[in-house]
Design a protein that fits this description.
Order of helices and strands: EEEEEEEEEEEEEEEEEEEEEE
CATH topology: Neuraminidase
Number of helices: 0
Helix content: under 10%
Strand order of the largest sheet: 1-22-21-20
Number of strands: 22
CATH architecture: 6 Propeller
Shape: globular
Largest sheet: 4 strands, antiparallel
Distance between the termini: 17 Å
Strand content: over 45%
Length: 271
Amino acid sequence: MAGPEELTLSLIGEHRILDKGAGLNEPSGLTLNTDGTALYTVSDDTKAIFKLDLKGRLRISESFFIGVDDLEGIAISADGSRLLAVQEDTNSIITVDIASRKEISRRPLAAMENYGLVAHHFPDPPDNKGLEGITVNTRNNHVFVVKEGRPGVLIEISPDLGAIIAARLLTTTNGFDHPRIGPDKLDFSGLSHDSTRDTLWITSDKGQCLFHYDWSTDQVLQRLDLNLESDQKPAKIRKSEGVAFDPVKRRLYVVSERDAQLYVFRVHGHE
């Protein structure tokens, strides 16, 4: 039987999204809306949700403030009506109604059924290695969140955010390794569900790469470096903090917190 198809990335766009006046300083987290026409991001130093077009231009009238800071990741519900964001210092999922722009729930992991499955990975007080990314599996509406490190943990949550279904460590055993970064230093800073293959794209800030991961087999299918084309020395995206996959256009959008840039990649070989 043939192995998984090798994918490649080509950079097709790069857009500056920094907007200090609006508070978009350190983009962290990214999600594509349901019709593939816009992106949402958050900035962990600003109590706001920002909407961007696909070239990174801020849609200021469709961005809005909410009463929550330290947001690190963002996802959209399968029906497109709600945004889900993770707050790292409380390891909570914040649900926001898009139409009213109001917070409708705040659910800490610790309040969920089966929290005992992961409790030992979340020290009290927090160690700044809490929840960093979130995505929704559009096939079954299950929510996935990722813990940044020490250790990296991927957690599957019920659609109503009431219960933890399963959790997996992200280690060398299931393919999360890197030629330059040791397993104790490798981090995980964002994720996006791939509805075409029912897989997950997980980005690493320190690894400057993406892991294409299959939850059903608990194995990394491929690691892809986030290379930037340059006439000078080779470069990679610095501090990638969010990723969003477009299954129709076969594109990956990645945000850099360090440089406040939106990068657009075409995925080649993706069925």
